[in-house]
């Protein structure tokens, strides 16, 4: 049995009076690829944002790679170095070139020499198939290209875990595939622990080890993709699947 | 929030004090910041007290009760050298409020007209207002005040050869003389009628809205309101016996007697403040109107609303929301800028407090009075405007 | 293949000067009235003004009596007094120094408004420029005669007070803006108090305070000269307004930028220094220029505490008993100087705003 790399134990969170996460229990093994789905407002983004402390949980424990997320800044920094995140709206830095976006973290957080950071950056730009855009600014790229840069930016930090927060939902339909292809490539390579919040069920079928369904702040159901799609147990899951699969 | 954190703390291991705890850091930073401020303040205050004791200056506001011994050029309330410093400062405050209130009203009117004129289809009007705005905004207010003051005192003739603008109104280097209403009850009644008109307009707007809601018939609120504003004072005047005599200024010896005076100082200050602020208000109004998308005009026309209905029901409510915050800061600016009065000798609060602190040596108290007055005025204007802003924002939704 | 219908010239009633006049000046009865009214206004005011300012004006007179005789403007007054108005009491033979200082200051302002220079390079330019200006004005080194700052005056002083004011207020303003957005209540309260207190009172009261109270604040035996006191008041004043401008920029940065930086594990300093501030400051350059214009105009208030800026040296020029009563000419001349500076800066900042508004490309 492989040791868990992420553990969430009865995690709870409130926005004011609103209970967004209710008793979340989740164990992720090293190298596991998980897809999280559920209706909007179900707390799935909040959950993964708690994993790198963009949001603070108020009850329960989150343990990432043996380090518990507490109020300790050293732990938070350590975890953020190991966890990469890709956002719905890319969040690239518009005033920096693509290459500068990619090397900023390695140089200032990982303290790598500039040449090494640039070599790594070019390696990952090649991997997401846009090395020719290195000296452009994010605003000059299409949405799909920007998201691929964002993925490369996270990879440059050499993370053990990648979190994807609806990476394709802000994209025009014709650009979704180029981003998914990169994500599939990353998944098939193996070794990387991935948690993706997405509605791309094709992606889930293809690469996920496990699909998690959330609703109203709770994990309702989790299963292998095959079982999940062909034999959903909970009626809320059935309803959700019937709505998105038409 | 803190509540939920403590819930988490129950299940978490007991916390140790650590530099890596953001709460610890935050407390340390804040303690450091506050103690630096306190130390600097203590340093300054102890120095000040020491310096004051060397110079034998006693602190406190006792001097306010002493006889001022100076005269003030113009005052809305009676004032002479035998009155106290406190009363002198009150005169200054009233003078400041007088020029600020009149200035705000006039600047709003002129600024709005110019702002709309800049968007006029009429090429000449648009260009003229543009030139006005650009010139006024790009020359320091103080220079403009000096300019108007010099224009009045240096280029206008003396009272004996004063320019008669219209019968009873004279312009000379001693200021502008206008006829004033005599001390007659009819004029008080007219003033009451004017105030009453506002109450009646309020009632009428309410009734008209109810009637429109019930029957769908609109009532010409604007025309009726205007009629009330003009009619009520006239009615008051008529009831009072319609006196025709006014206190008209007459030349006697070297100067005028009777009538009301706009002193050169007041006239220059008011003129300068109004023209300057109007230039800024014009830009506020223009950008407020332009902030409303042209699509709104098109949509309203497509519904068949007339141009004036569109303006009143669609455009104005939206642009007011954009206009009010910068308008407020222009009002505040005008009030603060009225302190430039000291440069041309209009006895506003700054100028009188300045005279007081020079005479008594109570520098700290004098400056504290000035600052307290302006802070009070600024805060009350911004509170009022915030309240009004919320009010119209609510009405909109 | 289809051939497009040949495009025809529009009907003459919609083009040409007559149509232009009809469209732009007489499109409705109201517009016609307004046009006629404005033309009347122009005819009433412009010819007499031109007659006063140009036709009857005297440009060369040697005495004020001669100058006044024509009945028009006396521009000869400016010719006699312009050195005093522009440079104040600075030693006459050394006035090339404030002249060069003025040029340096203007060059610094111009360079700062060119987008290509919006990098760290501005920092050495400003520091170097301010040092060069100080050396030129004070002298005492490099074989330059020492000139006390009580003798400085005129346009260079106005420029010095405003540029030094903004430059030194800048870091304070940024710190105050960050403090006001801080989550730490004590720091936030301190910053809000400072900003709102300063913005609530007129600049004059700050100037009075610095000229009357600053000497009391200092330990016995210390003193700062009048010019420095005014400069401190202007810095304290500008910092509060700068803070609000910068805060506007900070608010315009989307939350995602903070999160992007956080997800990379950047520290607070790196996050602000590399990600947030560079973007926020770029957004606020147009309002910063407006603030600079405002400060530039407001430095004229130092007249009230008796400092020889452009305004005050003009007033001094007007007190010469041999040349009495030419205030209007002097004020028009000074207005034109202020206008040229402020107008060109504001036009430039409007252009900049338009350019920055089109796309987030660079």
Note the main attributes of this structure.
heterotrimer, A: six-stranded mixed β-sheet, four-stranded antiparallel β-sheet, 39% helix, B: 397 residues, alpha+beta, 13 helices
Provide a compact summary of the structure.
Chain B is α+β, with helices and mostly antiparallel strands. Chain B is built from 13 helices and eight strands. In chain B, a hairpin with a 2-residue loop joins strand 2 and strand 3.
Model description:
The complex is a heterotrimer of chains A (246), B (397) and C (362). Chain A is built from nine helices and ten strands. The longest helix of chain A is centred in the C-terminal third of the chain and has 17 residues, at 173-189. In chain A, helix 3 (98-108) crosses helix 4 (114-127), helix 3 packs parallel to helix 5 and helix 5 (143-155) packs parallel to helix 6 (173-189). Chain A is of the alpha/beta class and 246 residues long. The model of chain A has no long low-confidence stretch (mean pLDDT 90). Chain B has 397 residues and is an alpha+beta fold. Chain B has helices at residues 2-11, 22-54, 85-118, 123-137, 141-155, 185-215, 221-239, 264-291, 294-302, 307-337, 341-344, 349-360, 363-396; strands spanning 163-166, 169-172, 175-178, 180-181, 246-247, 250-252, 255-257, 260-262. In chain B, the strands form three sheets. Chain B has a four-stranded antiparallel beta sheet with strand order 1-2-3-8. A two-stranded antiparallel ribbon of chain B has the order 4-5. Chain B is globular, with a radius of gyration of 28 Å. The relative contact order of chain B is 0.12. Chain C has a domain at 75-90 and 147-355: MetI-like (MetI-like fold). Chain C has 15 helices and no strands. Chain C is globular. Chains in contact: A-B, A-C, B-C.
Secondary structure category of chain A: alpha/beta
Number of strands of chain C: 0
- Rg measurement of chain C, Å: 27 Å
Name the helicity range of chain A: 25-40%
Order of helices and strands of chain C: HHHHHHHHHHHHHHH
Task: Give a short account of the largest sheet of chain C.
Answer: none
Which overall shape of chain A is indicated by the principal axes computed on the Cα atoms?
globular
Rounded mean pLDDT of chain C is: 83
Which CATH first-tier class of the domain at 75-90 and 147-355 in chain C would you pick? Mainly Alpha
- Which runs of chain A of at least 5 residues are low in confidence (pLDDT < 50)? none
Largest interchain contact: B-C, 55 and 55 residues
Give Rg of chain A in angstroms. 18 Å
Average the pLDDT over all residues of chain A and give the rounded result.
Answer: 90
Task: Please give the alpha-carbon distance between the first and last residues of chain C.
Answer: 43 Å
Sequence stretches where pLDDT stays below 50 over 5 or more residues of chain C: none
- Biggest sheet character of chain A: 6 strands, mixed
